[in-house]
Amino acid sequence: MIGVVLWGKEESETAVIWCEDQASMIYLNGRRHLRDASWWPGPGDLVELDNEISGNRRHARRVSRLPQGQKAKVPQEIRCPVDPSCTSLSFPVCDYTCPPCKQRCG
Predict the structure, then answer these.
(1) Which stretches of 1-101 are assigned E, i.e. beta strand?
(2) pLDDT of res. 7
């Protein structure tokens, strides 16, 4: 399945991926689920993955980065509404990385 990373934090090794099947978001937890553990997916990365359902959540398995000529941009509709240069996403969650977001959401 193909997906785009909406949110990712290398420090906690977590990411949220929206997939082409438009079903529930898929969660990535830990480098052990990457085919190449030398990189961590960030917002806008296109990935190929398998998914596994556990309880009521879908989890990413065997994730690999798809080649891209230029890094894909996350659509403006899901980006920080306060500061266009901010890397924070307003959907599915605000990650509080820019000062305006910390003030607004934190």
Answers:
(1) 2-9, 14-19, 26-29, 46-54, 57-65
(2) 87
Give the residue, 80 or 40, on which the prediction is more confident.
40
Checking if the pLDDT of 73 tops 90, the result is no
Q: What is the dihedral of CA 7, 15, 35, 20, to 10 degrees?
A: -60
Residue 105 DSSP class? H
State the Cα–Cα distance between residues 76 and 65, nearest whole angstrom: 22
Compute the distance between CA of residue 74 and CA of residue 45 in angstroms, rounded to an integer: 9
Cα(83)–Cα(105) distance, integer angstroms: 13
**Residue 94 reports pLDDT greater than 80:** no
8 A C-beta contact, residue 61 and residue 35? no
Q: From CA 47, how far away is CA 19, in angstroms rounded?
A: 9
Average pLDDT over residues 79-85: 63
Centroid of chain to Cα 34: 13
Helix (H, G, I), strand (E, B) or coil at 51: strand
